[in-house]
Amino acid sequence: MTLARSSFGAFPRRPAGSAAASRLLVAGAFALASCGGGDGTNPLDNAATVANPAGTTNGQKLSFAYFQRCVMPILRAQLPININGAMSVNSCASGGCHDNTTGTGGALRLVGSAADVNLATAAASAAVVRQTDMYRNFYSSQGETLIGAPLASRLLNKPLVRTVLHGGGLVFADENDANAKIIRYWITRPMPAGQDEFSAAAANLFTPADVTTGVCNTD
Ligand code: HEM
Fold first, then answer.
1. In this structure, what DSSP letter does residue 18 have?
2. pLDDT for 121-167, tens place per residue?
């Protein structure tokens, strides 16, 4: 568009509001400049790369034996549940909660009726155990932990309502709850690096040191 000079030699008057619009544009450019980019120089730059440090547990696994004998009984137990002050009794693995078929409990999926695996028999090879419902419960629960880091593990933080909300309400009154201590003990004692979830080192998590007859150690 060419601007024709008016008879008064002046440029035609700018429509009302255009001054405000250009002031807004200048202000916007300044605001954009002040928000900065990845390294703070160019506002249109990509955001800085999010840090995602490598895990500290070298791919270690938690103990299947301790899960089956000490953690799964908690996930099956009828526990007092506090949802916004309304008390009820329910189990984590129940229908509507974390049951694998009828649960609404997100990624934690449990088969409450899973049979215990007799680890003392030769038939209980890793390949065979990994086909069982109990192993599915182990795998899903381990997936809700950051191995070695109980404070960052949803399996504890959700039922404690610690830094997160929980659709199932408050299940463990606080971290001194006996059940919370067992889950914490499991998360903080992974099997040695290079060994799998069936490692014989799990015997040390029981007293006497026997995964079949020993009593579950706890914090
Ligand atoms: C010891 C018992 C329990 C544990 C360890 C537990 C743990 C968890 C975890 C880890 C999540 C997050 C799953 C995800 O990553 O998506 C979760 C979510 C959920 N849980 Fe539970 N839960 C327990 C009991 C219950 C009970 C009894 C109910 C039902 C009354 C329940 C209902 C839910 C629901 C609806 C969600 C999805 C919404 C959310 O993310 O908060 N939970 N729970």
1. H
2. 877 899 999 999 999 999 999 999 999 999 999 999 999 999 999 99
